[in-house]
Amino acid sequence: MTKSIVVTGANRGIGLEFVKLYCRRGDKVYAVCRQSSAALAETGADIIDGVDVGSEACAARLREGLANVRVQLLINNAGILRDEKLGELNYATIEDQFHINTLGPLRVTEALLDNLEEGAKIALITSRMGSIADNSSGGRYGYRISKAALNIAGVSLAHDLKPRGIAVALLHPGYVATDMVGGRGDISPELAAERLAARIDELNLGNSGSFWHSNGELLPW
Ligand SMILES: NC(=O)c1ccc[n+]([C@@H]2O[C@H](COP(=O)([O-])OP(=O)(O)OC[C@H]3O[C@@H](n4cnc5c(N)ncnc54)[C@H](OP(=O)(O)O)[C@@H]3O)[C@@H](O)[C@H]2O)c1
Question: If I label 148, which of 95, 101, 187, 213 is the partner at 20 to 30 A Cα–Cα?
Fold first, then answer.
């Protein structure tokens, strides 16, 4: 059955590969971005641009772009990575990451609550850098804070949406060769999207609220 799928951060990186993958599967994809790209335009997805997930105005733009659309899968993928060092912490970049990486997915999800069908799924693309147990190297204050906060918000979403039959996954893509990491990384964005989609396929109400690596490993909080 054709599904309606919403992907944020769809113009490049892992988000763009999600769009390509679900378009190949024959799903109806709504590609949400601030500004489209040539590669995104080629996919044939419906493009909803002008959506900055770090701004409150994104909710109205999303509701307008997705009016009357029943959504079976929402992938909150948009995110940023900045760097801060102790002794010279940049509180502005820490706040930016919190607004985009933590509040962004919450804003998008809340804006689309009425669009999400019973039995729908929500994927939150987080990072193992948000794992407290896995933090063996320190640093990256803003990114770690924002993704740890996203993780706990995701668990609350899983609890709150269970009565509506909606399952929520917290997914770490792996170390992926995108702009975010200067093109370095162990795997391509195509492979990351493929693996993440496999995890989303396995998501159900029984395992909702879990934190997985895209390779299937369950990650510690
Ligand atoms: N790459 C990795 O190794 C890695 C590892 C762990 C987790 N992740 C997570 O995976 C997700 C995707 O990252 P990526 O590697 O594909 O990074 P990327 O290539 O830098 O892409 C980031 C995407 O997020 C969008 N975005 C950034 N700020 C936004 C905003 N304020 N409003 C709307 N969209 C915004 C970007 O759009 P613009 O073009 O408009 O900036 C772009 O589409 C992120 O959540 C990231 O934290 C990545």
Answer: 187
Q: Is 148 inside any structural domain?
A: yes
Predicted TM-score of the model (pTM): 0.99
Mutate to test the pocket of ligand 1, among 53, 180, 194 (most ligand atoms within 8 A of CB): 180
Q: In this structure, is residue 170 part of a structural domain?
A: yes
Residue 60 falls inside a structural domain: yes
Give pLDDT tens digits for 108-144: 999 999 999 999 999 999 999 999 999 999 999 999 9
Token digits of residue 65: 């772009």
**CATH number for 105:** 3.40.50.720
Please tell me the total count of domains within the chain. 1
User: In this structure, are residues 192 and 125 in contact, taking their beta carbons and an 8 Å threshold?
Assistant: no
Output the CA 180–ligand 1 centroid distance in Å: 7
* Residue ranges of E strands in the chain: 4-8, 28-32, 46-48, 71-76, 116-125, 167-172, 210-213
Atom of ligand 1 nearest to the CA of 54: 31
